[in-house]
Design brief:
Layout lengths: L8 H19 L6 H22 L4 H27 L7 H9 L2
Length: 104
């Protein structure tokens, strides 16, 4: 999307989700990659969804829980991206950029 990193963490999570969707749409077309693409899509979009839910938390505890879930989903996204890269499932350099964005 934009090369400039966003100041708002929720905006960053939204951009990450959009990038994951675009990546998975292309990656999932490869034979045998659909399941991994679906796993990555679920985790990658959940980061942003949980960040947004944290914004409207009714307590500090719920805020913390939603942000912890977002962090766990980012870690899961990083796992699937590492699998994709380690198994040479795509020559797309976007996988490495997304892995860096996921926090690895």
């Amino acid at each position: 999307m934009d090369d400039q990193p966003p100041w708002d963490i929720r905006e960053g999570a939204f951009r990450f989700a959009c990038d994951i969707v675009r990546f998975c749409l292309n990656f999932g077309k490869k034979p045998g990659c659909r399941h991994i693409a679906d796993q990555l899509l679920d985790a990658g979009t959940s980061v942003g969804a949980n960040s947004e839910e944290a914004k409207s938390a009714y307590s500090r505890r719920e805020f913390a829980v939603k942000n912890c879930i977002a962090l766990k989903e980012a870690r899961e996204s990083a796992f699937w991206l590492r699998v994709i890269i380690a198994c040479d499932l795509t020559p797309d350099p976007e996988a490495r950029r997304l892995l860096k964005e996921a926090g690895s």
